[in-house]
């Protein structure tokens, strides 16, 4: 569950720091999310605090994880406080972290949106059924062919045409029905809620 033991370990060092130093760590974490790691800044912060660079890096990465997960889960102020409760930090420290989270949550979500993968989305589907009833050599046969045209958004190829025989169409239908049934399960609803 969020927060886990590893996160608590990474952020344990922050409990003994003054609020100004914690504000700097939070600011570093937001900068880390936006621009990536800056080892020079980590080294400078470590020398000012008299700790190892690894401790500063672990604390900043822990704060990054905390802020990004909270933004991804769209935590409210009360829910964010609830996540900080197991850390047993002073109220002033929790208030400072909450204030920075609330100020930066929109920026964090924008960064997450830029880094996320965009998959093609179905815009329109049309189909046609062609049936060959006979030919010169065979007078009574039925050979159905399905043609599907899928128009996609956010795709390299905006239109895809599929030609399917009866067996493949039946298999495609069963796979899509199974996917639809799977999307209605509680686990899948929870996953979708966390993605958006």
H-E order: HHHHHHEEEHH
Q: How confident overall, as mean pLDDT? A: 83
Strand order of the largest sheet: 1-2-3
Number of E strands: 3
Computed structural class: alpha+beta
Q: What's the story with the biggest beta sheet?
A: 3 strands, antiparallel
Helicity, in percent? 55-70%
Morphology? elongated
Radius of gyration: 27 Å
Percent of residues in β-strands: 15-25%
Number of helices: 8
Q: Which segments are poorly predicted (pLDDT under 50) over 5 or more consecutive residues?
A: none
**Please, how many domains?**
2
InterPro entries: COMM, Commd2
Protein name: COMM domain-containing protein 2
Organism: Thecamonas trahens ATCC 50062
Pfam families: COMM_domain, COMM_HN
Which key terms come to mind for this protein?
3-stranded antiparallel beta sheet, elongated, 8 helices, alpha+beta, COMM, COMM domain-containing protein 2, 2 domains, 15% strand, single chain, 3 strands, 196 residues
């Amino acid at each position: 569950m969020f927060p886990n033991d590893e996160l608590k370990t990474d952020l344990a060092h922050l409990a003994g720091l003054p609020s100004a130093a914690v504000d700097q760590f939070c600011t570093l974490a937001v900068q880390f999310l936006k621009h990536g790691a800056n080892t020079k800044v980590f080294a400078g912060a470590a020398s000012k605090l008299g700790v190892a660079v690894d401790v500063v890096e672990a604390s900043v990465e822990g704060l990054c994880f905390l802020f990004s997960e909270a933004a991804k889960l769209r935590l409210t102020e009360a829910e964010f406080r609830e996540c900080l409760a197991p850390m047993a930090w002073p109220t002033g420290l929790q208030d400072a972290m909450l204030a920075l989270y609330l100020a930066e949550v929109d920026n964090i979500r924008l960064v997450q949106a830029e880094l996320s993968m965009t998959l093609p989305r179905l815009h329109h589907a049309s189909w046609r059924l062609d049936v060959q009833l006979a030919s010169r050599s065979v007078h009574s046969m039925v050979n159905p062919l399905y043609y599907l045209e899928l128009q996609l958004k956010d795709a390299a190829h905006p239109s895809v045409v599929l030609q399917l025989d009866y067996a493949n169409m039946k298999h495609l239908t069963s796979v899509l029905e199974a996917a639809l049934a799977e999307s209605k399960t509680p686990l899948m609803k929870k996953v979708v809620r966390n993605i958006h």
